[in-house]
Amino acid sequence: MKNWLSRWRHVNPDWHDWLLLLLPVAIWFSYLPNLHIGQIGGANVEFSITEIYLVIFALTSLPLIWRQRRFLAKNRMTQAVIGGAVLVGLSLLWTSNLPRGLLTFGVIGVLVICFLAFLANKKLPKIWPFLKSIFIASVAAMSIIAIIQVIYGIWWDFGLCSGCVATGFGFARPNVFTIEPQFFGSLLIAPMVLLIHKYLGGKAGRFDIVAMILTLFALSLTLSRGAIFAVALGVIILFIINRRNWQKILKTIAIIAAIFAGSLVFDGAATSLNPRVSDGFTSSIAKTVNHLSMGLIDIPVKTLTSDQPIAAPAVFDGYVKKSTTERLNMTELSLQTWRQNAGTVIFGVGLGGSGQSIYDHTDLKWNAEISQNQYVETLLENGLLGLLIFLTAIGYLFYLTRRHKWLWAILAAYLLQWNMFSGLPNALHIYLAIGLIYVTINNTYGKKIEQKH
Asked: Where are the alpha helices (DSSP H) in 201-280?
């Protein structure tokens, strides 16, 4: 620790650098604790620690951005990001839900300022290793909290989200400080891929390996198929990149298999100890496997009969098909709304207008619903033009990272998970990660950025 602090002092950090250094900690508090103000235009007006922290970071970054305005003005990515934000903002002129559109544009504005601050900070190449260390330490800490949350949920529901309580599957699913388990799982994607990348490359220290094991274990406990499948895709890409190092790949597969099996045993034990459900050890494991395999794997379980009164069984008996059906239904309703006329097809219904437009043009009973698919929501709100810009930006990022192909694993994982949800407030970490990825590679990294400053 002393050595770490000594090296950090050599960076000569100011108070704003400290704000940047603690950003990997702030992102974990994306929903709880929460300052709820009210609701407007079908959108909840509420602020999490993550959002408040980003606003503070953005506002305090303005002097730095102003000092580096000449450099930023000449930077093509700066021009592209600001240009994209302006184009998205223009859709506020025809949005079907102006209050929600303005709130969304405010979040986009904060993210743009944060990105400009990353670009303008000439110390970032020196700060980057410390950011990674803090990030890995924070993911280990949050994974431990997730495990504790599952243990706590055996006997109590207080403080757990409705989709986290143990009466669902027989054991609690951790969400830590996020709104629900899938978003906690999403927060684990980037550090999980980073840690496995380090392990495959032989650069993982003891703490990295411990953090990797804890993170894999916590991810398995979420039962979030979107996050788990996304990490699986990222790991497969890492295996392809490191295909010559087959011994490390086999070791990694063995570790993943052992941790997954351990999580199943942990879930089964938690269910067995839960006095509020009648499910046992084997039935819990069977349900988990059935859910994660989307109903494809069905392990038969013998039902024990007893004359003694027992607790009720857990609500879910395996694959929760309703979750998939609701997402597909919202995707279909979004596409149905998007096809209403040529103007909507090209330009969309406007920023923040998806829920209201679906409500107006379909039999949806609530105007606060979201598309549950980021690509479809972009298509509905910003039309073909907006989706084309969005996909072009993603493609360009893949091109920029061609010399750092392991980053493709993170990007591909996020691309897959974007099929499972939409919106900004609970997924700010994705856009911050993408911004940092760009700044720390290629033309804006190392000596090149210092020369331009």
From this structure: 206-222, 225-241, 246-273
pTM of the model: 0.90
Q: How far is CA 6 from CA 2, 12, 86, 209, 278, in A?
A: 6, 10, 43, 24, 55
What are 6-21's pLDDT values in tens digits? Answer: 777 777 788 888 899 9
C-alpha to C-alpha distance for 332 and 371, rounded to whole angstroms? 9
Quote helix, strand, coil % in the chain, to nearest 5.
65, 5, 30
What residue ranges do the domains of the chain occupy?
128-318
In this prediction, the residues of the chain whose per-residue pLDDT falls under 70 are 1-2, 4, 41, 303-310, 442-453
CB neighbours of residue 349 within 10 Å: 29
Q: Are 265 and 288 in contact (CB under 8 A)?
A: no
User: Which alpha helices (DSSP H) does 274-405 contain, by range?
Assistant: 281-292, 321-338, 342-347, 354-361, 374-400
What backbone torsions phi and psi does residue 365 show, to the nearest 5 degrees? -95, 0
Q: Is the peptide bond before 174 cis (omega within 30 degrees of 0)?
A: no
Distances (CA, A) of 349 to 93, 340, 358, 367: 10, 10, 10, 14
